[in-house]
């Protein structure tokens, strides 16, 4: 069993590694179908907060809301009533209201939902606003497709392994509080649930999902300017068919992680360059997270302090040499741990769990929501109707900075090459020798044997080697 390094307050993260987030206080219990949302701080030097909303486990569906102060890494709970228990819902933060988290849909013991609830993070209070227009039919929709202030809904879960039959594109405008239907040309994706739907620029990307016994590996694009669907052609490298995975945007790249297919739960991380439309499987320098599906995932930022670059250049050189040795020692390929058990530092349930076990009055889902299907192809190849009895039926799953990377020593003329994906970002409002680090965070979820997790892991988009080079001098 391989261990993940801990990300403490003084840790300088490296690319190619998943880190266990070191936290304090009472963290959220084991759960699936919840959401994670990052709310930026309101002033320079404030790391903001991470919010974990809802979800379910064998004890039932949750109406709780946890948040972590990213300055102190301390967990706390929103002590304000009004949030309706649910799981496999969507949560999004509009551009013009960055202190608010909107929640849509999901399921509770009585069935699916289609309501909107709002968490005001400045007061940590919940509200259920009246909305205009006709909302989508009740559904599970565990993915977040937000463009500015618009939240887009396409397809989603109906009952058991079946998606809703609705093929319309629904749009919620958080400014006006109104629903509308977007009239789109072209061939729309087949109805599905458990898919990833992420907005980048003015385009929406839909990947994977399932319907009945079919899994999908296709990629569809909705151009909101042209109001047109297109189906991206597959190239040599692309992720396998899957559902119940999660996705997020970083700059112009789409990242997806985990999920499940015919063989079981997955632990791989893939990146789509949405400019070249080329997929890349991320090769790790350490172990991946435990295989999982139906987890929370989001982008977040943390400030990190770094060594004083005004010191002798030998300090930087020695650090880089040490990093190169470490890179050689950590063999790629050791990251292919496929075990479904949680790693140390990532607590999990030891009891088998299926959302089928959740009955009205004691849990968050109808019995029919636990049939499982499998197949693997973009055309929806048929497979066995059930992988494992405890498998849940799956009801679904967020800038542009390119700083020049150069040594702080003015006598150094040659620019140091930057590894792919590394974009540590100096902030002129930050104290000297700090850097805003960019991460992908995953939290909780379960494997196909019913084991549930409550761990929080981070993957850094900026390595230690690059950040030491990029740090602004004091």
Automatic annotation (TrEMBL):
Gene3D superfamilies: Kelch-type beta propeller. Residues 424-433 have a biased composition (Polar residues). The keyword Repeat applies. Residues 374-386 have a biased composition (Low complexity). It comes from the Eukaryota. PANTHER family: RAB9 EFFECTOR PROTEIN WITH KELCH MOTIFS. SUPFAM superfamilies: Kelch motif. Rab9 effector required for endosome to trans-Golgi network (TGN) transport. Pfam families: Kelch_KLHDC2_KLHL20_DRC7 (PF24681). This is Rab9 effector protein with kelch motifs. Keywords: Kelch repeat, Repeat. The keyword Glycoprotein does not apply. Signal peptide: none annotated. Residues 328-433 are annotated as: Disordered.
């Amino acid at each position: 069993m391989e261990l993940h390094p801990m990300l403490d307050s003084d840790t300088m993260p490296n690319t190619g590694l998943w880190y266990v987030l070191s936290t304090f206080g009472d963290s959220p219990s084991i759960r699936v179908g919840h959401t994670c949302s990052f709310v930026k701080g309101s002033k320079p030097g404030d790391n903001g907060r991470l919010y974990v909303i809802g979800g379910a486990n064998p004890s039932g569906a949750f109406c709780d809301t946890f948040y972590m102060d990213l300055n102190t890494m301390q967990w706390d709970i929103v002590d304000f009533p009004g949030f309706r228990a649910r799981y496999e819902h969507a949560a999004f933060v509009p551009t013009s209201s960055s202190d608010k988290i909107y929640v849509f849909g999901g399921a509770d013991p009585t069935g699916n939902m289609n309501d909107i609830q709002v968490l005001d993070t400045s007061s940590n209070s919940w509200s259920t606003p009246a909305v205009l227009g006709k909302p989508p039919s009740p559904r599970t929709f565990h993915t977040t497709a937000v463009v500015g202030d618009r939240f887009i809904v396409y397809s989603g879960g109906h009952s058991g392994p079946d998606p809703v039959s609705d093929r319309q594109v629904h749009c919620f405008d958080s400014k006006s509080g109104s629903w509308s239907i977007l009239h789109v040309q072209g061939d729309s994706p087949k109805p599905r649930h458990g898919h990833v739907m992420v907005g980048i620029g003015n385009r929406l990307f839909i990947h994977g999902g399932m319907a009945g016994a079919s899994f999908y590996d296709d990629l569809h694009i909705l151009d909101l300017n042209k109001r047109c669907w297109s189906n991206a052609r597959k190239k040599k490298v692309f992720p396998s068919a899957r559902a119940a995975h999660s996705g997020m945007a970083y700059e112009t790249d789409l990242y997806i992680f985990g999920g499940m297919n015919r063989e079981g739960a997955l632990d791989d991380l893939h990146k789509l360059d949405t400019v070249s439309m080329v997929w890349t499987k991320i090769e790790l320098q350490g172990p991946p997270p435990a295989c999982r599906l139906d987890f929370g995932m989001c982008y977040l930022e943390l400030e990190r302090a770094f060594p004083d670059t005004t010191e002798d250049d030998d300090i930087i050189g020695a650090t880089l040499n040490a990093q190169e040795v470490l890179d050689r020692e950590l063999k790629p390929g050791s990251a292919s741990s496929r075990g479904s058990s949680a790693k140390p530092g990532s607590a999990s349930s030891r009891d088998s769990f299926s959302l089928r076990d959740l009955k009205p009055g004691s849990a968050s889902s109808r019995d029919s929501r636990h049939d499982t299907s499998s197949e693997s192809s973009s055309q929806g190849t048929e497979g066995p109707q059930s992988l494992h009895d405890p498998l849940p039926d799956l009801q679904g799953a967020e800038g542009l900075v390119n700083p020049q990377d150069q040594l702080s020593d003015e006598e150094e003329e040659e620019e140091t090459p930057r590894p792919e994906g590394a974009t540590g970002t100096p902030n002129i409002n930050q104290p000297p020798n700090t850097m805003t680090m960019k991460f992908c965070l995953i939290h909780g979820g379960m494997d196909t044997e019913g084991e549930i997790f409550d761990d929080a892991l981070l993957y850094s988009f900026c390595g230690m080697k690059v950040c030491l080079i990029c740090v602004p001098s004091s």
